[in-house]
Input
Amino acid sequence: MRRLVPWAMLAFLIFGLVDGAPAGRSHSGIHRKRATSSERSAAVSRGRPRHLPLAESLALPRSGRQRHFGDTDVFGLRAASAVLMDANSGTVLYERSPDTVRSPASVTKILTALVILEHGELTDTVTASSAAARTGGYRLGLRAGQRVSLGDLLAAILIRSANDAAVAAAEHVGGSLGGFVALMNEKAAEIGMTNSRFSNPHGLDEPFHYTTARDMATLTRVAMDNPTFAELVRTRQARVTIWKPARRRFVPQVRIVQSHNRLLGQLEGADGVKTGYTDSAGRCLVASASRGNSRMIAVLLNDPRRWTDAAMLLEYGFGSIRDAARVQPDGSPWLAEQVEGWTRLEAQARVEERP
Output
């Protein structure tokens, strides 16, 4: 018995050392360790389908001038291209690579909607084609032979960003997809979109489908003057009726479409306009906000922080208009160089710019 005790103690020490080792090997011989939080996040990102963007956050600035952050420029914007426009005057208050051509993703649908409103009758009944039913991306869920009013298709295009609805409406209004695209490019040229070309009504990536931040701001300024367009892009939720064929009649099916625009109901005065995302275009946003008699339009193309950047630009715009409207006692414009890290707009006040 006494001879067994030393052997037992030795075995205990050996197994204790093995079990307490900081890292062991699996049965396959692979060295194992606990994953860090950054490694776990990377693994989640790798497992996500390529066509789905990662979650975004929205940090709203306080009303008025905000301190800039980041070191890319005075605003710290992440956008590849950006424009801030005063919708009343058309004055560009901020720009960053405004004329560089880029894929527009679903902000294309701003032009699609404008062409539908100018050439279509919203009371028309549209029958979905097989081509519309096959369209990928965000969808209303149309099947060939189903019927929808043109007005409901327009709501699905602007609120849900439904690609199948865009194709169905385009075929109806233009007579064919090619006919509608021709109308899109005619309208773009008419309103001065000098660096844009469109190949489809939904914005899915194609080689000859592109626009610029300046052109999108120009387009949005025109589109927001249409009351039907303006009403739809500020709507957060709507009911759409799809008529499904069933034997000798059509049966109605109601669907609820919800807006992707996070600024609605969050940023003061936010009233549109359109989001977009594809692998080629990145995250895109055309945002609008109105306060008093002023409206600001912000365009952000390929911006991973589009919501916060849009809110920041819009707040800056309203502050600039307030500054431009102020005059000195002798009637000369009041020019401010910089307050709280923001460069003020140095421009003479015009009557239409005053709140």
User: Anything to note?
Assistant: The domain at 81-353 is CATH 3.40.710.10 (Beta-lactamase). The first strand starts at residue 81 and ends at 86.
